[in-house]
Specification:
This protein is of the alpha+beta class and 173 residues long. The chain has a single domain, classed as Gcn5-related N-acetyltransferase (GNAT) (Aminopeptidase). Helix 1 crosses helix 3. The chain is built from six helices and seven strands.
Length: 173
């Protein structure tokens, strides 16, 4: 049974009213290295993005969902990207607001999006690219059944030095 609702959170499509949240999150320089963002996003660009966010994953090859609690507070975002229906795979990324971390939000969101991907989109495998020094994400994905399958040496240039990136994969069996 398809379910995007968990015990404490649910995943939902982005709404026009999410503009300020999206603007705040996308312009948070502390997470730019995760998303490979180099410049700020304008509200105009984000409004256009929201206008098109309803498009089908098969058309745009990505899906972004808001992570919300049952009081309708936005806690973060989860993304499927580089969706490849021919090979039945997608990349996965997650960001949780700093004040909401260490409360199980990421774990529950990752569980819900993985189940959705495997059972609704019939994805065979999900993969995640995680900076080697991002111990919280490494722990989260490892605890959720993702296996480290590779290391990309000196992959990202961050703060004046190169950082390795780990490749994690989860295959639906």
């Amino acid at each position: 049974m398809l379910k995007l609702k968990g015990d404490t959170i649910f995943l939902r499509a982005l709404e026009p009213g999410d503009l300020d949240f999206l603007y705040q999150l996308e312009n948070d320089e502390s997470i730019w290295e995760v998303s490979e963002t180099l410049t700020p996003y304008s509200k105009f660009i984000l409004k256009q993005y929201l206008r098109n966010s309803h498009k089908d994953i098969y058309e745009v090859k990505q899906l972004r969902l808001a992570i919300s609690d049952y009081d309708k507070n936005l806690l973060g975002l989860v993304d499927l990207f580089d969706f490849n229906p021919k090979n039945s795979r997608a990349g996965i990324g997650i960001v949780v607001l700093e004040k909401e971390r260490k409360r199980g939000v990421g774990k529950e969101a990752l569980k819900l999006i993985s189940e959705y991907s495997f059972h609704h989109l019939n994805i065979h495998q999900l993969y995640a690219n995680i900076a080697a020094d991002n111990t919280a994400s490494v722990r989260l994905f490892s605890n959720m059944g993702f296996k480290k399958i590779g290391v990309k040496k000196d992959w990202n240039y961050v703060g004046g030095s190169y950082v390795d990136e780990l490749l994690f994969q989860k295959i639906n069996k």
